Amino acid sequence: MSIRANILLRVYLAFGLIVLFAVAVLVKLFDVQYVEGERWRAMADSLSTKYVNVEAARGNIYSVDGSLLATSIPEYELRMDTYAGGIADNDIFEEKVDSLAIKLSSFFGDKSAKEYSRYLRSARRDSARYLLIKRKVGYQDLKTVRTFPLFNVGKYTGGLIAVQQNKRIRPFKYLAARTIGYKNENVSNGVGLEGAYGEYINGESGKRLVQRLAGGVWMPVNEEAEVAPKEGADIISTIDINVQDLAQSALERQLKVSDADHGTVIVMEVSSGEVRAVANYTRVAEGVYSEQFNYAIGGRQDPGSTFKLASYMALLEDRKIDTNTLVETGDGFYRIPGHTIKDSHGGIGTVTVKKAFEESANTAIAKLVNIHYKDNPSAFTDHLYRIHMNEKLRLQIPGEAQPVIKNPEFKSWNKNMTLPQMAYGYEMQITPLQMLAFYNAIANNGKYIAPIFVREIRRLGNPIERFEARVIHDQVCSPETVKKLQAMLEGVVKEGTGKLMGSPYYRVAGKTGTAQVADANKGYKAKRSYQASFCGYFPADKPKYSIMVAINGPKNGYYGATVAGPVFKEIADRIYASDMEMYNDIPQYVVGNDNAPRAKAGPDKVVRKVYHAFGITSLHASASNYRSVSDANSGAGYQELNNAKDIMPDVNGMGLRDALYVLGNAGLKTKVRGHGQVISQSIPAGVRIGKGLLVKLELR
């Protein structure tokens, strides 16, 4: 082959290879653009934009009387796009940036004006599109910041970016804090009602499109969320905020007096099982107590003498004894193999069963149970198992401890010691609420119900679920036995160890308890520590409330009557004084004045009840829930206080609690000065309002 032909052949081959390579490139480009294009475009988009969840405003938690226990308020993180459309022109930015710095410095007070100016100018040079200005800013402050230079150019063009977050607050702060509970990232299921009803309270998250900026920062693409979040449902609890306040203050005061380690109080309505108050305090420093643990539902231990009620129930129900049966307590000691049971106050001789119970004789109940059930201990424990005292109450809030009620099948059962010691409340583990539930059953004529903490769930004001107490056992014992037990409990307060809890105005039934508490590691042989308790109900002739008080580790005395008793009495006295449904029909008179007495504006139901008690006639009726009252010669004239949506309500004349409730429902923040009733409000009634506005109230 000639040289020329060889050269031409090589040229053709090279050209062919170039053509083939070009075709391959075109094929690959087609494949990338059309075949795999959708996948690559989606990947590119995912690297620069994504959807993130927008937290929903959590539902409110209310007390049974309508007081707001927990709510969510908007809180904002303020950021700035230094190249937003309205301020992209450098002349506009330079003209107003120093003025903005002065305003920010004056308003927030965290940096000087010069520091803010340098901070903003440096961000501008770096083309910052999501510069942090301030965290945790309230709605009212946000409105003010929006008026600052540059930011006031326009909602979307002035550079200000407000990212809404929700802050959970409790208006009554520490009241019922443990029962209300909380939810945070470190506790998967939450605590209290916040945790138990998170499925309802949390609502449904929304979606927001964000784009990635330099430095890995994600900025919202739009001002509003692409998918709006759905607010959570509201929880109507059974807690009465007034009773809760009373229970907490009475418990804390007595803990300090007795120099105790911790304590709990539970107040429950007998017929409904609704818990009106739960207070738990732990000593955190000398003379300082706070809520650390829910002892009411999670603190199980030997109940001591309060358990004797269950022991006598078994004996009476099996007709082993009657209330007038005589029992010998001797010198106050009852000796069993390996142990001696003694009465803390010494022997009381030969007495009736009723008297032995009233004086809380350990020897009497231990001897009676041991004599009658020693050969068949299951006959005794079966009574407790039959009414499910060995099972959890299955409460509406988490954290309930499992009760431990032994039977002869337990490995730790001692044939000589366990049965007689169980008789007076040892060798078992029961929480204060579990013990109260049993006493409540006796007050409720034998009907054993599980306590409840939530009455209703509402969404947009409409009930979506209602709750009633679950019946554990229809009749814990025969009606005849119930009547005897009720008389024995009332006898404790009339004639026995519970005399201090008596009242000349109403009848009380209950039982004192003093139990030596075992150390977790050293048992009962360690330094002695006691639990003082009192469990009972009132009025004894028509029970409405049952109360359990348990105080652990008191240093100044340890008997149930002197340590726990004062707490019970203070709570019972004050509830009785404020609950007119428990009063007898005593005629009331207004002397020396033909006009109706002065009254604060407030809830219709409460105002009418007070005036009715004084025999004062209502002159006006309407559908309004709130009203003010004016004097009238022949009765009480009511003026409606209707609260339309987005309209400022009139709270003049109201007490602080009612005013806070009305304003809280309207979504307003409050600042209060003075005491008494509201005499002025900073936002006039009747004007249009938005959520989060601050209202200043003056009281006198």
Query: What is the CATH architecture descriptor of one domain?
Result: Alpha-Beta Complex
The tally of helices reads 21
How many angstroms separate the termini?
A: 120 Å
Shape summary: elongated
Largest sheet: 7 strands, mixed
Specify the helix fraction band.
25-40%
Q: Strand content of the residues, in percent?
A: 15-25%
Mean pLDDT: 83
Number of strands: 32
CATH level 1 class label of one domain: Alpha Beta
Low-confidence stretches: 42-46, 585-591, 619-623, 629-639
**Class by helix and strand content?**
alpha+beta
Q: Radius of gyration, rounded?
A: 36 Å
CATH topology name of one domain, in short, is Penicillin-binding protein 2a (Domain 2)
* CATH superfamily placement of one domain: Penicillin-binding protein 2a (Domain 2)
Fill in the keyword field for this structure.
Trypsin Inhibitor V, Chain A, single chain, 700 residues, alpha+beta, seven-stranded mixed beta sheet, Penicillin-binding protein 2a (Domain 2), six-stranded antiparallel beta sheet
Describe the structure.
There is one protein chain. The protein is of the alpha+beta class and 700 residues long. Among the domains are: 3-35; 52-237, Penicillin-binding protein 2a (Domain 2) (Alpha-Beta Complex), CATH 3.90.1310; 602-699, 2-Layer Sandwich (Trypsin Inhibitor V, Chain A), CATH 3.30.10.20. The chain is built from 21 helices and 32 strands. The strands form 10 sheets. Strands 2, 3, 4, 5, 10, 21 and 22 form a 7-stranded mixed sheet that branches. Strands 13-12-11-26-25-24 form a 6-stranded antiparallel sheet, sandwiched between helices. Strand 21 (454-459) and strand 22 form a beta hairpin. It starts with a helix and ends with a strand.
